[in-house]
Prior knowledge:
Helix content: 55-70%
Largest sheet: 4 strands, antiparallel
Number of strands: 6
Strand order of the largest sheet: 3-4-5-6
Radius of gyration: 21 Å
Order of helices and strands: HHHHEHEHEEEEHHHHHH
Shape: globular
Number of helices: 12
Amino acid sequence: MDMESPRDRFAAIAVLPDERIDLAEAALWIAAEEQPGLDPSAWLARLDEMGERLRPRLQGVEDELGRVERLADFLSGEVGLRGNAEDYYDPRNSFLNEVLDRGLGIPITLALVYMEVGRRAGVPLVGVGFPGHFLLRHSAQPRLLLDPFDHGRLLTEEDCRQMLEKLSGGSLPFDSRLLRPSSPRQILVRMLNNLRGIYLNQSEPLRVIGVLDRVLLLDPDDVGARRDRGLLSLRWADPQRGIEDLERYLALEPEAPDTEAVEELLVEARRRMAQVH
């Protein structure tokens, strides 16, 4: 493996235009930061091998619905991929290598496997950042929707409407624009935000900071990530970087509702830094 760190490799991917981002490789570098020594090439080869196994099963199947069904049958049946409903917030569900190894994941990482295996075998799928539950659709036939968390079950727009009603308790109105494709950058940010929530709940601030580092590599103007990294850095890591992040946050969001509270924190942080130096 290259001597570059996982963060350096991820940073190099993060600045690429969306059409050049290799989602699987980027996801594996996210995992490699948490699992030192992880070699993404071995897991990319696993995806290649799965695509090769699927390709003969698609021979003679001309309609896209049938091809999607063969992909779902292969991944849920033969490979054994399934949603980890029993331990949904296990961080391993967010690491692509663990999903491939254990056959367990959350909607977005399972969707990533479907997309990557489908791409290799000629079934083009795109991710859909549906609120609360990541979905997939066929890139050439947008009415072909499926749920990777539920064995690749095919969905109608009405199914999605009912899902949103249940997930939001009726607080979010359905709009067909919620079924638009997500870009590779948006998918990676959503994956990282899942990890962010898990580590926050586990009271692991340094891991949260590491996740926010990667979110901000992908989207430097993410004001929520900028603020949160600033607040956490002030207390747990690097006060100077915390000050810089919060200053940047206020520059990006001068009318933010917490402006006064953040300004007070900055005054106190600068005072403490002056005493140290």
